[in-house]
């Protein structure tokens, strides 16, 4: 046997386990709740419509026992007459049928909701196993069903005995009473017995409903290994996630390297950090970072910038501040506007300078403020 099979199921089922069980139609059901719902709704409907049902039944009986002489000479009309009598008999009990049908819908909704699960219609040949059948026959469920049956018999028997004892004097007086009075007393006694029975079954259902919920969750309990496997499945395989992150980093690196030739300047530190900036006057509110990197990535950005004749400025404090405080494809922080503007101004002057026409532009110290690196705010000349 595997480790999972040997391990005890001590963990409560997860939401995923419960959801999968509901999709398969595996939800808690209480037979006692269904019985009391159907019987209770039918009795209440009978109690509410008893007078109308009695009148309709009396009229139907009178009509059924009255022989129409015309039918004696028309045998072909006997079948339609019988159908009309049957329809007249069913009509008074329609409210009872509707109440019972409503109870059949309400009871499952109270327990676990109405669900149509196609998987439950598929044949399960595992139920044909003799060992599983013996386990169900002598298992805890069978014992619980036996106890429920005994309790049901005791409750119904006790209720019946109580009703008969309470109405004993009425039963003795019924032979001397008129037919209508005896019938009314009998109907009242029957309704009282049914209501008492509904109350007894309701008590049994109040015990059975929590028990069914407990049993349902107990069957769905999981082992610690199943919990770990489910969490691993939900979060994803670590190897796959690592590969996805690696691919994402490679795609981000390629995207940044493709953007370096379009940059206006690359700020270096001089080899550990590199940040490529781009600014379009009138099209951007502030310079934007198009690429950044450290160590080998920084050297690759610098080499690509030099290959595409993008200005490279060594400004260690500014390079560190830009790397730490800015993101790729986003504008630089407001507190670095002045320093970056100074570098871009220097780059534009350098591009416009023509050798032999005045001195070569020089870049003064770039001040990144208190948020920059603690190194002295000095920069070297441009590396073009």
UniProtKB/TrEMBL annotation:
Compartments reported by the entry: Cell membrane
Membrane topology recorded in Swiss-Prot or TrEMBL: Multi-pass membrane protein
One of the Pfam families matching this protein, by short name: Bac_export_2
Assigned keywords, A-Z: Bacterial flagellum biogenesis, Bacterial flagellum protein export, Cell membrane, Cell projection, Cilium, Flagellum, Membrane, Protein transport, Transmembrane, Transmembrane helix, Transport
Source domain of life: Bacteria
Acyltransferase in keyword set: no
Main location as per UniProt: membrane
Spans through the membrane: 89-111, 150-169, 189-211
Region (Disordered): 1-27
Function text: Required for formation of the rod structure in the basal body of the flagellar apparatus. Together with FliI and FliH, may constitute the export apparatus of flagellin.
Similarity-based family: Belongs to the type III secretion exporter family.
Name of the protein this chain belongs to: Flagellar biosynthetic protein FlhB
Organism in which the protein naturally occurs: Lysobacter koreensis
